[in-house]
User: Fold this.
Amino acid sequence: MTKLSGPMLLPASGTPPKQAVVLLHGYGSDGNDLIGLVPYWRDTLPDALFVAPNGPAPCDGFGEGYQWFEVDFAGDRLASRQTGVLQARPILEQFLHDMWSQTGILPQDTLLVGFSQGAMMALHVGLALPQSLMGIVAFAGALLPPEGFGTAGFGKPPICLVHGDADTVVDPERSADAAQALEAAGYDVSYHVSPGAGHTIATDGLEFASAFIARVAAK
Assistant:
C-alpha cells in the first residue's frame, strides 16, 4: 500500500506531541500548501504535531502536484468522487493509524483539516472511524458519506464546514447539503458561508474555523 509523506512541524512547546493536526490538500496541490495554516493555530495548540501529507498519486489532470483520487472532468464528476474516496480511504486510514501508533497520540486528540478534495477525504475518512476525532474542518468540500454513515458503529466528532458562496469549482450547495445531512444524523455542526469568496479559504472562513478549533481543543 502507498505510504504517505509530506511536510511536518513539531509542537511549538518543544515537548512531545499530545495532539495532531492532519492537513489534507486539494487536487493538484501538495502538503506545502496547507502547512501554511499552522501559524494561525499554533498558539491554540502548542503541543500539537502538524503534518500535511501529499496525496497518494501525482496529479494527472491540470496542476503539477498530487491528488487523493482522479477526477473525471469530462464525465460524471460526482461518480468519480464517490469511487475515488473509497480507493483513497485505506491509504489515509493507514497513515492515521501509523501516526497514532508511532506517537502515542489518540484519535480524540486529532484534528482532520481538508480543503476541496482534501475536505472530501477528511469528511469521508473521519466519519468512518469507530472513534470520535477531536474534530473535522472541511473547507470548500462535499460530503461523500461512508457506508453505514450515522450508525452506532462510528464516532461522532464535531464538524466545521466552510464554503465561499461564489465557488465555481465545488458547488457551495455541497457544504449546505452536508450541514443538513450531518445535523439530521445527530452531529455537532458549525457551518459558515464566506460571502463573495470563490474556491479559496477567505479570511472570515479562516477565523470561523479557528474559533471552532479553539472550542474543540478546550474540551
Q: What stands out?
A: Residues 77-103 form the longest helix (27 residues). The radius of gyration is 16 Å.
